[in-house]
Amino acid sequence: MPESSPKSRIRILVVFLILIAGYAIFLQYYNYNPGFNDATMADMRKVNAAKIVDIAKSEYDVDLDYSPESIKKVDQILGQMHREHLEKPFSEDQIIKRSILWGSYVGEVVRSNVSCEWRATIGLPLQLDDDTYLYPTDWCHQKIVDGGEENHLWTRYLFATTGN
Q: What is the DSSP string of 138-152?
């Protein structure tokens, strides 16, 4: 077997290091954590939803009670947040954190009216019994960033709970 040149060994080492760095970034990006499972996801979402009830009251003077009608109130709050974002853009980190928190509340309202469970997978979805996935975090992200129709979340909630 011919001996490899120093240049080829360096190339192999560089490729190997790039692969290791890429894998580390992948694990960090997808929040790899062996203890992070569906049950911990559900617990986290419940805690986040409770935080939103407090935030809605203290920052927006809005009472959220986990009723389907409260989704309309969240729609209004996120519409206001969208206007604030247009005036003074939020950082991507702020948008993601807000989307996860508000999406937790919206998802908990969905969960209380439809048979579904949180899943600890990409997109942090709710899974319905028929293997349909709902993404309330994405719904909230879209409302904060893009605005959209007045009843953006309410429309999605109705579709998720009634199919219409």
A: HHHHHHHHH--STTH
